[in-house]
């Protein structure tokens, strides 16, 4: 089994920055991609960003130019650098891992709150 543990969330003011981390542990035989989703109250869970283990990235239009995703394959850790934060970014953020073998895993979620 794989466990994903997120950290780095919290409360910031508009325009501030946060860096989320997600560490994967357990029986991991290969990572196809890791990414971040978020869910705000009353809204559907949406993709924020993902990164293929080789380094190719993809971002939601709403965060392009503000967020940066990166991965440390040796540590099985994915990061999300969040700059120029807006109140609309307020949500629970979930780490996601797609394994080469073994399916998909999810973190428990971490709160990000951006105040005006």
Outline of this structure?
This protein has 116 residues and is mainly beta. It has no helices and eleven strands.
User: What's the total helix number?
Assistant: 0
Tell me, rounded to a whole number, the average pLDDT. Answer: 94
Give the SSE string. EEEEEEEEEEE
Report the C-alpha radius of gyration, rounded.
Answer: 14 Å
Catalogue the unreliable spans: none
Terminal CA distance reads 40 Å
Helix content: under 10%
Structural class: mainly beta
The general outline is: globular
The overall strand count is 11
Q: What's the story with the biggest beta sheet?
A: 7 strands, mixed
Beta-strand percent range: over 45%
Explain this structure.
This protein is mainly β and about 120 residues long. Helix content is about 0%, strand content about 60%. It has strands spanning about 1-5, 10-15, 20-25, 30-40, 45-50, 55-60, 65-70, 75-80, 90-100, 105, 110-115. The strands form 2 sheets. Strands 2, 4, 5, 6, 9, 10 and 11 form a 7-stranded mixed β-sheet that branches. A hairpin with a 4-residue loop joins strand 7 and strand 8 (about 75-80). The chain is globular and about 45 Å long.
């Amino acid at each position: 089994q794989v466990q994903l543990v997120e950290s780095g969330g919290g409360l910031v003011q508009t325009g501030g920055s946060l860096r989320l981390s997600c560490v994967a542990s357990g029986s991991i035989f290969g990572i196809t991609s890791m990414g971040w989703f978020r869910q705000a109250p009353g809204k559907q869970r949406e993709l924020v960003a993902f990164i293929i283990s080789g380094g190719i990235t993809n971002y939601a239009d709403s965060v392009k130019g503000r967020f940066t995703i990166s991965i440390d394959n040796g540590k099985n850790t994915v990061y999300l650098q969040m700059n120029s934060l807006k109140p609309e970014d307020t949500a629970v953020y979930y780490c996601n891992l797609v394994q080469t073998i073994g399916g998909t895993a999810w973190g428990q979620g971490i709160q990000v709150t951006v105040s005006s």
